[in-house]
Amino acid sequence: MSEDLGAVIDEIMKSVEGDVSREDVESNLRKFIDYGVPVEQAKQAVIKKYGGKQAVQVVQKKLGEVEPDDRRLSFIGKIVAIDEREVEVRGEKKKIFRGLIGDETAVLPFTAWKDFGLEQGEVVRVKNASAGEWGGQPRLNFSEWTEVEKTDEQVDLIKRKPQHYDIIDLKPGLSNIEVKAKLLTMEEREVSVEGTIKKVYTGIMGDMTGKIRYTSWTDFGIREGDVVEIKGAYTKSWRGAPQLIFDENATVEKIDEDIAISEMSKKSIPIYKLVEAGGGVDVAVEGVVIEIQSGSGIIYRCPKCNRAISEGVCPVDGEVEGIPDLRIKAVVDDGTGAVNAVFNRETTEKLTEKTLEEFRGMNDGEVEEELKNLLIAHPIHVEGNALSDEYGVTLIVQDAEMVTPAVEQEREELLSKMEVME
Ligand SMILES: [Zn+2]
């Protein structure tokens, strides 16, 4: 014991300067040790007491090896995020910096108790940091005694585990996505990217919850009809709807599993999901019609460009002989959100059980009255593609039907059963 302490005292003597007696150092050291302070910590405390430079025994670690009680840590990491905030320490306002630092083994949160001038994306060599625990994970502390210096070394960050999404939950701006889906359609195209011809694969994929347009920038050897698991994809907004994109940074694996797609087009989704996604492919919603907008009923289209015209004048082609058409522009609301819905002639005729010719026999007021009576405040199921523009999300209706309230449906079923019994 005393032999061990002799070596420790030697080290302390080397670290402190000026007139310090060996006896004083020893008695101070013993005091700490008698109080149960571990030898290493006692040594540091005595050195500090005499104003010596702490003999920093650096512990070089990868961030993935850091444990919550580590001291005198040294490591190299990349600043992933940094955020300045003001806190009150003993009644005094103090600026602290919180952020994330990472290397190829982990990304850890840190708190810097002074301004090291850290910037996002920088690679830094950190000496004499410590670790605490926060939410069961190590959290690094950069204190007054921590040294931080910028370095030119490269740090590749650990790859985050991709996050699994159902297609219904995809919206523009997500990254590192994992989805399992069936490739419902696939087209191969060639595009020129910075002078070189690249093959791209586009189409629509679906799972049990919905469909989305996709683009693959790499030939993964996948074909229409395949069920695939994609990891590391991202989303962007394309022509007013979300699109899933994957390239050589993603992994795509064909899996031996089928996904039942047939049922899903009938399954309606909450409208807020559609608004959040900013559109979608082949979606269905159910809500109540709260408004019939102007431009509904009989309209005339330009024979050359198909635009809706007014008073026989096309904004592009001038005076033309308009072709009559039928449409409804409505707002459908399900309590979670609202979308514009545009019904073409076919769906309008189906819903109203009236033909274009029959509508042409009525005046504008009668047509409006007819549409309002039929639709306003009535529940409706609509399907189609949804796009977003400056007016919000618009569903281009491909199919629609009035929703029969459950009570009426039950009564009808009951009646038909009675007919069978007779
Ligand atoms: Zn025209």
Description:
The structure is a single chain. With 422 residues, the protein is an alpha+beta fold. The chain folds into four domains: 2-49, no CATH class; 59-150, Nucleic acid-binding proteins (OB fold (Dihydrolipoamide Acetyltransferase, E2P), Beta Barrel); 163-265, OB fold (Dihydrolipoamide Acetyltransferase, E2P), CATH 2.40.50.140; 268-407, Nucleic acid-binding proteins (OB fold (Dihydrolipoamide Acetyltransferase, E2P), Beta Barrel). The protein is 20% helix and 42% strand. It has eight helices and 24 strands. The protein has helices spanning 2-15, 22-34, 39-49, 271-277, 345-352, 356-360, 364-375, 406-421; strands at residues 59-60, 73-89, 92-102, 107-112, 123-134, 137-142, 147-150, 163-164, 177-183, 187-193, 196-206, 211-216, 227-238, 241-246, 251-254, 280-292, 297-301, 308-309, 313-314, 318-319, 323-333, 338-343, 379-389, 392-402. Helix 2 (22-34) packs across helix 3. The longest helix is centred in the last third of the chain and has 16 residues, at 406-421. The radius of gyration is 35 Å and the shape is elongated. The N and C termini lie far apart (105 Å). It binds zinc ion.
Q: Helix segment count? A: 8
Number of domains in the coordinates?
Answer: 4
**Got a strand count?**
24
Just give the CATH class of the largest domain: Mainly Beta
List ligands, each type once: zinc ion
Rg is 35 Å
Helix-and-strand structural type = alpha+beta
Provide the helix percentage.
10-25%
Give the overall average pLDDT.
Answer: 87
Keywords:
422 residues, alpha+beta, OB fold (Dihydrolipoamide Acetyltransferase, E2P), 4 domains, five-stranded mixed β-barrel, five-stranded mixed barrel, elongated
